[in-house]
Amino acid sequence: MNPPIRKLMLILLVLGAGVFLVGCSTLSPAVTENETINLGLIAPLSGPLTYVGWDVRGGVEMAVDDINAAGGINGRPVKLLIKNSYGTEDGALAAYEELKTQTPLILGPVTTSEVLALAPLTEEDNIIILSPTATGAAISNCSDNVFRTAASDLYQGRGIARLIATTNPEAEQIVVVYEINDVYAEGLKKSFLEAATNNGLEVVDIIPVDPDVRNYEEIARELKHCGGEDVGADAVVLLSHLNAGVGVLQAAKAVGFETDWYGPDALVDEQVLIVGGDSLEGMQVTVQGSRNRFEEFAVRYKERTRREPAWIAPSSYDATMIAAEVIRAGGYDADAIQNALNTIRYIGVTGPKFFDDNGDVSPSFDVMEIQNGSWEHLEWSDLLAMVDRNSTEDARNQE
Fold first, then answer.
1. Tell me: the pLDDT tens digits for 9-56?
2. Together in a domain, 53 and 88
3. Cis amide linkage into residue 48, ω under 30° from 0
4. Does the N-terminal or the C-terminal CB of the chain have fewer CB atoms within 10 Å?
5. 283 with 303, same domain?
């Protein structure tokens, strides 16, 4: 770490604010003394992505309560305006139309396709959207008014490939199963396959899964017989949203197929634990980095919601706190918010956040593993120990 950055980090920690902004520190004159400050939220609160939407809402509401408990934004209370997108582009568009006249800043939407649907409208209407969860590579530079606190899948796909190469170098029959007609899964597949080649991994098959057709048993049998009768894939990379992923995992268990499973953040859910049972012990996934002050956050979040947070809730909390800070420092209009987002340096639950010219944050990923029937963060010391063991075994095999 160079001296200027070290000095900045020290200042932030001493002040306890976790924020550095360049700009003015007063609200726009458009906000009068008695007005609340509206923040919009677009999330899927029903439909197949409900599990994402409620974690987003939980994190955002927790942040709004904290902001208001601390006096609001420059003394003004924050009011959260929540709209259901149903996890669809049309739903997101309808929600956006309702919110755009009530606030210059909208948190969400949560999926890549929804963000891309809104992107051209944000410039026409001069509205800022800040998504805590949309990770598709296509979002980068889609609009100057679009920002996100989750890193691009370009890096997550690479991370999965690197994870397999370092912790499971013996894998020879690697199969990719991906959800078709989905921007999230397609982006992950592209970045994983490119990185797999660079990391010396051999992918022997790529199998599409269609959640509308639900061809899960067919896929499970194909995986079981990959490489010959009852040989099976020795590593499967499952790139999908939760519902399709659960379908594949449940079918694999039904046909008696076990392997080393890998996947992205969308699979971190209790449903995976329920359908997989002991057969998924050791499954590893990459998730957005969330370990900076995660333990403290997790205790409070569980007390509020009775749910265990993964990465979605803390990312949503941080996005909301960032929204409050840029309004506090820059003002309550889109131009001021955009300028402040371009200069903010924020240290939150999920670690340091600052936005590049594309509205993206720097990549930071953790690894989670199923251990004794629950999702656990895998400490980097454990990962390094795996690498050391593999290196020792390779050396012995070469003797």
1. 333 332 334 554 433 333 333 444 458 999 999 999 999 899 999 999
2. yes
3. no
4. C
5. no
